[in-house]
Amino acid sequence: MNDHTDKDLIAGCVSGRNDALEELVSRYSDPVYRVVQYTFKTRNVSYSQQDLEDLHNSVFLGLFEKQCKKLRQYKGKNGCSLYSWIRMITVRTVIDHLRKGGVDALGRQKKDLPDEFVESLRTEQPEPWNDIDREDQWRMVNEGMKELLPRDRLFLKLHFLEGLSIGEVVDVMGLSDSNVHSLKHRAVKRLKSKVLGKG
């Protein structure tokens, strides 16, 4: 599937052509089911066939609502395919569903900063980070994220806060395996500097 075909399909959906809408559903229906199921499994959350059906339908309703707003936001930058874009939207749809049910992005009932994220910001000194309660940690992280470059902020949000694996982030952001780890290291270091005032 090339980028030109993706854009033609989106243009047809945006213009309200039924054949384009049907083709999009036909082409991506099975992948959306698989991603919904995969997202549940990776977060160790039980699900029913009805959950799969409901979320599958929610993904496509979300793609088509407001004159296909989410589809119009797809730009195909950095080699991101339409499949990767829909995959990201599907993962976010499932995560939003879990959060509404009191489950966070990593499948935990209690909303908290992911342990790996907390550990990456931990310092050898007990102050100021280690003894701060989690609510204040959230506030500090949110403030620090606002000051980062968009690329770093997107990586941290997708990987740590939304729970996407490194492989999923590579797909969504169009990164190579060789530079994703350096991006992770740099983004965490910059956030640490913003939050704690040190690298």
Would you write up a description of this structure?
- It is a single chain.
- It is globular and about 55 Å long.
- The N and C termini lie far apart (43 Å).
- The protein has helices at 3-14, 18-42, 49-72, 82-100, 115-121, 134-146, 150-161, 166-173, 177-196.
- The protein has 9 helices and no strands.
- The chain has 199 residues and is mostly helical.
- The chain folds into 2 domains: 3-100, Rna Polymerase Sigma Factor, Chain: A (Orthogonal Bundle), CATH 1.10.1740.10; 115-196, Arc Repressor Mutant, subunit A (Orthogonal Bundle), CATH 1.10.10.10.
- Helix 2 crosses helix 4 (82-100), helix 3 (49-72) crosses helix 4 (82-100) and helix 6 crosses helix 9 (177-196).
Write the layout of secondary structure elements.
Elements: H1 3-14, H2 18-42, H3 49-72, H4 82-100, H5 115-121, H6 134-146, H7 150-161, H8 166-173, H9 177-196
Q: Outline of this structure?
A:
With 199 residues, this protein is mainly alpha-helical. The chain has 9 helices and no strands. It is 70% helix and 0% strand.
Subunit organisation of the chains: single chain
CATH class of the largest domain: Mainly Alpha
User: CATH homologous superfamily of the largest domain, by name?
Assistant: RNA polymerase sigma factor, region 2, helix turn helix motif
Q: In this structure, how is the largest beta sheet organized?
A: none
What is the helix/strand order?
HHHHHHHHH
Figure out the total of helices: 9
